[in-house]
Fold this protein.
Amino acid sequence: QKEVEQDPGPLSVPEGAIVSLNCTYSNSAFQYFMWYRQYSRKGPELLMYTYSSGNKEDGRFTAQVDKSSKYISLFIRDSQPSDSATYLCAMTQRSNTGKLIFGQGTTLQVKP
Amino acid sequence: DTGVSQNPRHKITKRGQNVTFRCDPISEHNRLYWYRQTLGQGPEFLTYFQNEAQLEKSRLLSDRFSAERPKGSFSTLEIQRTEQGDSAMYLCASSSAGTFKAGWDEQFFGPGTRLTVL
C-alpha cells in the first residue's frame, strides 16, 4: 500500500464548477501538506501548503487538512479552463532532508 | 533568477547505453533533490544533497544510478546500462535551507528530463 493515495481521475467539469480533490495518507508523522499543479510536460509548481490540521485559503483555492482522518483536500472555486492540469498532493515530516512523498496525481479538465 | 534548469530536456537512448543528466539549481539554493516520475504517477524521491554532500538515497536508486553535486552547485545524475524500465521523467528540485516556513522549505522544480529507453 502506498503512503499517499490519490484518485487519478480524470475529472472533467464545466467552467465555473467547484472542484474537490482529495488525498489520504497512512504515515501519522506527516506534518506538512502541499498541493502542486503540473501542466503537461512541465515540472510541478507549488499551489498551497498547510502545516498540521486546518484550513488555508488563497483566492479561489482552499486547502484543508484533517490529521485525525489522515485526509487532505483542495477545493477550487469558479474553475477556469486554465486550471486544467494534474494536481499532486505531497507531504513531508519535519526532518533534515525535507523529501516529499507525492500522491499519484489527479488530472483535471475544465471545459469552457 | 531563471529558476531550476535541466538539460537535456529529452533523451532517447538504446538499452544498455549510459546517460547523464544535468541540473542547475536556483543560485544559492543549498538543497538539491532528484525525483523520478513515470507516466500517470506522482514524482518519487531518488536522492538529496545538502551542498556537496549526498545525505539520502532512496532504495529506488540502484547501483546503476549515481548522482554528484561537485562544489555544491550543479548536479548530475548518471544511469549506467539503461533498461527500458528506466524510461521516465527525471525531475530536479532545489530549496534553500534556512528559510524555513514552520519547519519546511519550498522546493522549486525544474522542467525535467524525459528519458526514453528503446
In short: The first strand of chain B starts at residue 5 and ends at 7. DSSP finds no helices and eleven strands in chain B. Chain B has a mean pLDDT of 92.
